[in-house]
Amino acid sequence: MRTYSPKASEITRQWHVVDAEGLVLGRMATEVARILRGKHKPTYTPHMDTGDHVIIVNADKVVLTSGKADRKLVYSHSGYPGGLTSVTYAQMMVDRPEDAVRRSIRGMLPKNRLGRQQLTKLKVYAGPTHPHAGQSPTELSLEAARARS
């Protein structure tokens, strides 16, 4: 029997909306990364982008457990000597909550051009509204997604 590999024309993409209000950041990020990669589909192929689009709303209301918001640091480097800066997750959630969520999901995707391509299908918004109403997204609760697999 031959191994099935989907063609680009056979890949169908759906839009999922995740309301992040009250969700734990890490648990939400693993489920979203799974959907972006396409692991929830029977046609999943590790070397192809078979995943769906994900819209995350209310990113500013996501929570971190057991005081991690004050303990965990986010590092960035300017590329110059001595250019390492660090900020806590609590400060990042105040300044740029979209970047904090996107960064957590990005760490769970492959570190190559496939991962960068999959990350383009992620849209994160701090508030409850988003401009993607024309794509007819399906509401996705993470408990329902976990039950499907």
Give a short overview:
This protein is α/β, with parallel strands linked by helices and 149 residues long.
Q: Strands, helices and their partners?
A:
Blueprint: E1 15-19, H1 25-37, E2 53-57, H2 68-71, E3 73-77, E4 84-88, H3 89-95, H4 97-106, H5 113-119, E5 122-124, E6 138-139, H6 142-148
Parallel strand pairs: 1-2, 1-6, 2-5
Antiparallel strand pairs: 3-4
Helix pairs in contact: 1-4, 3-4
Task: Describe what you observe in this structure.
- This protein is α/β, with parallel strands linked by helices.
- The protein has a domain at 15-65 and 93-144: Ribosomal protein L13 (Ribosomal Protein L13p, Chain: A, Alpha-Beta Complex).
- It contains six helices and six strands.
- It has helices at residues 25-37, 68-71, 89-95, 97-106, 113-119, 142-148, and strands at residues 15-19, 53-57, 73-77, 84-88, 122-124, 138-139.
- The protein has a four-stranded parallel beta sheet, with helices on one face. Strands 3-4 form a two-stranded antiparallel sheet.
- Helix 1 crosses helix 4 (97-106) and helix 3 (89-95) packs across helix 4 (97-106).
- The model has no long low-confidence stretch (mean pLDDT 91).
Uncertain residue segments = none
- What is the string of SSEs from the N terminus onward? EHEHEEHHHEEH
Q: How many angstroms separate the termini?
A: 25 Å
CATH domain class name of the domain at 15-65 and 93-144: Alpha Beta
Q: Residue-averaged pLDDT, rounded? A: 91
CATH superfamily of the domain at 15-65 and 93-144: Ribosomal protein L13
Strand line-up of the largest beta sheet: 5-2-1-6
Radius of gyration computed on alpha carbons: 17 Å
- Categorize the overall geometry: globular
**CATH topology-level fold name of the domain at 15-65 and 93-144:** Ribosomal Protein L13p, Chain: A
CATH architecture of the domain at 15-65 and 93-144: Alpha-Beta Complex
What percent of the residues sit in helical stretches (DSSP H or I)?
25-40%
Biggest β-sheet description: 4 strands, parallel
The DSSP helix count reads 6
Number of strands: 6
Question: How much strand?
Answer: 15-25%
Structural class by SSE content: alpha/beta
